[in-house]
Structure formats: structure tokens, C-alpha cells
Amino acid sequence: MIPLAALCLAGWRQTGNGAAAQTGDRIMPSYSPELIQTMRAALDEVMTKIPLDQATPAIKAHMAEFILKTAAEGQTSYDALLSAASDNIQTILSMLT
Fold first, then answer.
1. What angle do the packed helices 78-86 and 57-72 form, to 10 degrees?
2. Closest CA to 39 of 93, 2, 77
């Protein structure tokens, strides 16, 4: 299981703030406890679609990153989060295995 702090760190993104963009500062999006549970559920579900011999911590981290990026873009439903990660399984597996 990936600690929540690691999930949050994977979700950092640049701000649209001019000063922050110039310095490369990043902010961490704030997620409600309910959304965090939804993201974890989507991550758990997508990991069941990956063969056990390939379900490494690195693969899980990449799947979490897709979920976090999707949530940061405003798509926060379970189905949208699961779809975003599921759509990228083959890409990640081919890159990391």
C-alpha cells in the first residue's frame, strides 16, 4: 500500500500563478477525505487488473499518479479516476517491465 503522503506528493502540480510559474514553485492540491477514499478505491481496483507478477510498487505509484492528475483536472468520480488509470495500464507495463 502506498502511504497517503506519497500519493499527495505524486499529485503536485505547477500553479497558474505568475510568480510561482517563474520560480517553479509547486502547490499541493487539497482533497476532501471522501475524494481521497474514492481515489484509493480506484487505485485498489486498477491494481486488480494488473497481473500479480507485474504489480510492483513502481507500477502502483504510476497508477496513483494518473489518478491524482485526473483528480487535479477536476474529474473526481470513481469511474473517471478508474478509467484514467485503466486506460494507461498497458503503457506503464510496457515502459516498466
1. 130
2. 77
